[in-house]
Amino acid sequence: MIASILGYGAYIPRYRIKAEEIAKVWGQDPDRVKLGLLVESKSVPGPDEDTATIAFEAAMQAIERAGIDKSLIGAVFVGSESHPYAVKPTGTILASALGLNPKHLRAASFEFACKAGTEAIQAVIGLINAGLIKYGLAIGADTAQGRPSDPLEYTAAAGGAAYVLGPKGDSKAIAEIERVESYVTDTPDFRRRQGAPYPEHGVRFTGEPAYFHHIINSVKLLLEKLGRDINEYDRFAFHSPNGKFVRNVARRLGIKDLSRVVSLDIVRKCGNFYSGSTLVGIARALDKANPGDKILAASFGSGAGSDAFSIVVKDRITEVKSIGKSVDRYLNRAKYIDYGTYARYRGILVMD
Amino acid sequence: MYMGIIEGTFPPRYRREVKYRNAFVGWRCKKCGRVFYTPRKRCECGSREIEEIELPREGRVVTRTVVRNPPKGYEKYAPYAIAIIELDVDGQKVRVLGQLADVDLDKIRTGMRVRATLRRIRAGRRGLIEYGVKRVPIEE
Amino acid sequence: MREVVIAGAGFAKIGERRNDRIGDIFAEAFRMLIDNTQIDPKEIEALVVGNMSAGEFVGQASLGAYLADYVGLSGIPAIRVEAACTSGGASVRTAYHLVASGAYDVVVAAGVEKMTDTPNNQTTSILAEAAHQEYETYFGASFVALNALMMRYYLDKYKPKREAFAKRSVYMHQNAVDNPRAQFRRPVKLEQVLNSTIVADPLTIFECAPIGDGSAAVLLTTPEKAKELGLEYVKIAGAALATDRLALHERDELDTLKATLRARERAYKQAKIEPKDVDLIEIHDAFSIMAVLALEDLGFAKKGEGRKLIDEGVISRDGSLPANLGGGLKARGHPVGSTTVYGVGEAYLNLLQKAPRKSPGGEVAVVQGIGGTGSTVSVFVLRR
Ligand SMILES: [Zn+2]
Predict the structure, then answer these.
(1) Domains in chain B and their CATH numbers?
(2) In this structure, what DSSP letter does residue C210 have?
(3) Is A81 an annotated catalytic residue?
(4) What does the alpha-carbon distance between residue A38 and residue A18 come to, in Å, rounded to a whole number?
């Protein structure tokens, strides 16, 4: 064991746009899109939502579920590729809004494409084990941008999750993080230059040497170190750029029961939360977990790398389930909007 | 002379006010016990002993409207709902004002229960991004 | 304290006056005051100007000095006073005390606002400065929205007929037809009011006062001096100003303007009158809800029943309590900082039967001005 999860919370905006609605604008075949990506709709942030507000909602719930004195939180690390500011840490906004104690507080914005959230978790674990902090908040959230007409437009969505982490063996633990393994190479599958509004990607290149290679390597490393078979896990959460990638990576890892992959429903209904994707997946796995269950989660960040986590659920999980909202409640609330409203909410229509 | 971007709130004011915009803070007179949302240095009872308190995040709409002609800087959010919300602070009714977010404008009702969250209040292209408390409906 | 009288009035035409600077608009009201009274401007010892936001609207501070200079009064003490939309009330009351105290014998109380040199959204922002900057305006509340919150509360609580509110606009447009300085001089129908665009639910645009440039000025002096100058006058029998908590949500009641209750109590007591003694009124009806609350809070109707005075025609020109004979804020217009001076000036004209259209007349008039959503209220009792 390397650290405890004391509380967790997820958040997904209420607005949704269907694949049909986007396909209509660009004259594409919606059925091909849906079958190709296994994504039916995606979440869209409201005009007043951004990574900080999504992170706030998730963090409020995580703190409430942790049931700790929030003045003991010593770090707010936020992973995202859509931080509100290019320079000014998102954690500073959150710390003030959450009413955290500014003394001995660390805050930083993390960026590693879609795995910035899991990097934030590892950084908090490091501080805890170094004895620098008692508790820390690690958050992954995004309001991802896809260039209009790009295939990414069907999936680039908004959502996030937050985790209150503490030392191993903490009495308030709802789960323990057993081990984490990472795998990183210089693979240019996806990038965005400073000041550019939209990212560039390598189309088919993004799958093989990027997503699959890195996730499979980090997960194999984790299983090797733990001496465990993948099918000993009760639930799986993977970074979800689309449903097809998730299904394929699960098959290639030898997962026999695809219903254990909690990420598939999320990405099908709400799309890709980028830095929030894996973290919302873990939250949904915790929502469904019973004491003693094992969860395997693997993120993927373009550029590229993957972090694989092994999590063991503790008894206190049953106490916190009634607090706040489950990921499924967010998945099932949907206010569908048309492309015009979507364009307005995403700031594609320039007003100032 | 300041040569930066003068758009939205100037940094010293932002820093001074940010806590009261983003965290949900109110005030209590230590002498008469009156709780209020908008600060003052001396209570009407004569006391200067006023303490900061955290206000409850849930409340009930007592009146509401929809802003269709917004002030400058709020155009991209219009139309939006504004409400006065009543909180119960240890049995005392305390009223606050704010926007309602994530509501269908034709479904806003007096009496509806809402919860405080953080949202953008206004943000230009280059100045500070300004946040504040808004309220979302509590889904039953 | 000496007795103070109003012995003259002048008004500028209200509207979008694209060719006129703020000084020109004031000069028009001032010139009418001089023309009507035929006094030598050298008699004027002090100038008080009510103005809400010249600094924001046209970038001009030092308004007292500027306006005195513009009409050849440079040298006399001249100040601007501000109490949002009843800056004019603050002006008249300040001038009242300058004369009552014996400091001066002849003082001009004016009000002026130039509101049309800014785009609509900026004008909306400037008007919202009347509310609490940090706790109302910042969160996106426009001034209309705050009034709409009061109206919705009232509608929910008393469930009145919606038409009663709208009818006020019909009366006001009717009253303005013969007022040459009114912004809107055409009658409107009830359906037009009810079916007009919604500005902030439930307020329609025909229930809200328009934006316009304007200025009014009244001459305050003692009865003795008025006689010496050969001027007809009405007495200021009561003059009061009161405040309430600035932010609407901080008020004890959302359907009562406590500042009106407070100012009314002092003004009526000073004038030794009761509501039944009043013959005509000038109320601050910037929004239909404000007309209803004014009728209740000034003591003419019980809480929840102010709308009846409108519905039953009591406040129409032919009713027993005619209100806003010049068209009120709705039709005459609402250049905010000058509005209460228009109200006082028109009550003076109507008591003396000097208005363009012969008034029902009477002995006692009550004038009310509201600043903000009721954070400042001025009440005057004029007696012929
Ligand atoms: Zn007190």
Answers:
(1) 57-137 (2.40.50)
(2) P
(3) yes
(4) 12
Q: Do domains C5-119+212-234 and C130-209+235-383 have the same CATH topology?
A: yes
User: What pLDDT does residue C164 have?
Assistant: 87
Domain coverage including residue A75: 3-173+331-337
In this prediction, residue A301 carries a pLDDT of: 96
Q: Which of B104, B120, B124 is nearest residue A53 as measured by Cβ atoms? A: B120
**Which two structure tokens, joined as six digits, stand for B76?**
């991209």
Selected from 3.40.50.1980, 3.40.47.10, 2.60.40.1180, 3.40.50.300, the CATH number assigned to the domain covering C5-119+212-234 reads 3.40.47.10
Over residues A172-206, the pLDDT tens digits come to 999 999 999 999 999 999 999 988 888 888 877 88
The reported pLDDT for the residue numbered C384 is: 95
Between the CA of B48 and the centroid of ligand 1 the distance, in Å, is 8
Flag residues of chain C having pLDDT under 70.
none
CATH of the domain at A313: 3.40.47.10
Whether A185 and A281 map to the same domain: the answer is: yes
Q: How many CB atoms lie within 10 A of CB A46?
A: 21
Task: Return the residue of C nearest to B75 by Cα.
Answer: C121
Distance B28 CA to ligand 1 centre (A): 8
- Judge: B72–C124 Cβ closer than 8 Å, yes or no: yes
Active site residue C334: yes
Q: How far is B56 from chain C (nearest CA, A)?
A: 16
Is 0.90 exceeded by the ipTM? yes
pLDDT at A156 over 90: yes
Considering chain A, what percentage of its residues have pLDDT values greater than 70? 100
Of C85, C173, C208, C284, the catalytic one is C85
Contact B75 A14 (CB under 8 A): no
Contact status of C157 with chain B (Cβ, < 8 Å):
no
Where do the structural domains in chain C lie, given as residue ranges?
5-119+212-234, 130-209+235-383
The CATH homologous superfamily of the domain defined by C130-209+235-383? Thiolase/Chalcone synthase (3.40.47.10)
Q: How confident is the model at residue B140 (pLDDT cuts 50, 70, 90)?
A: low
Chain B interface, best mutation among C201, C204, C251, C258, by max B CB count within 10 A: C201
Chain C residue closest to B96 (CA)?
C249
The answer to whether residues A53 and A141 touch, using CB atoms and an 8 Å cutoff, is: no
A124: confidence class by pLDDT, cuts 50, 70, 90:
very high
Residue B2 confidence class, pLDDT cut points 50, 70, 90: low
pLDDT surpasses 80 at A352: no
Residue of chain C minimizing CA distance to B132: C139
Q: Where are the beta strands (DSSP E) in A19-85?
A: 41-44, 73-79
Decide if A74 is inside a domain: yes
Q: Look at residue A47 and tell me if it is in a domain.
A: yes
Q: Please say whether the beta carbons of A219 and A308 come within 8 A.
A: yes
Q: Which residues of C touch B82 (CB under 8 A)?
A: 139-141, 145, 149
In this complex, do B118 and A53 lie within 8 Å of one another by their Cβ atoms?
yes
Contact B27, B41 (CB under 8 A): no
The shortest CB-CB distance from C145 to any of B20, B65, B133 is to B65
Q: Pick from A48, A98, A351: which is nearest to B134 by CB?
A: A48
Q: Are B85 and B58 in contact (CB under 8 A)?
A: no
State the alpha helices, DSSP H only, in A130-170. none
Q: Do C140 and B20 touch (CB under 8 A)?
A: no
Judge contact between C353 and C361, C-beta under 8 A.
yes
C-alpha B32 – ligand 1 centre gap (Å) = 4
| Cβ neighbours of A197 in B, within 8 Å | none
Q: How far does C153 lie from chain B, in Å, by closest CA?
A: 5
The whole-number pLDDT of residue B139 equals 80
Q: Look at residue A46 and tell me if it is in a domain.
A: yes
Long-range contacts of A145-148 (CB under 8 A, 24+ apart): A145/A82, A145/A197, A145/A198, A145/A199, A145/A346, A146/A198, A146/A199, A147/A197, A147/A198, A147/A199, A148/A26, A148/A343, A148/A348
Q: pLDDT tens digits, residue range A33-66?
A: 999 999 999 999 999 999 999 999 999 999 999 9
Of all residues in chain B, the one with the smallest CA distance to A12 is: B102
Residue A202 is predicted with a pLDDT of 80
Question: How far apart are alpha carbons C382 and C239 in whole angstroms?
Answer: 9
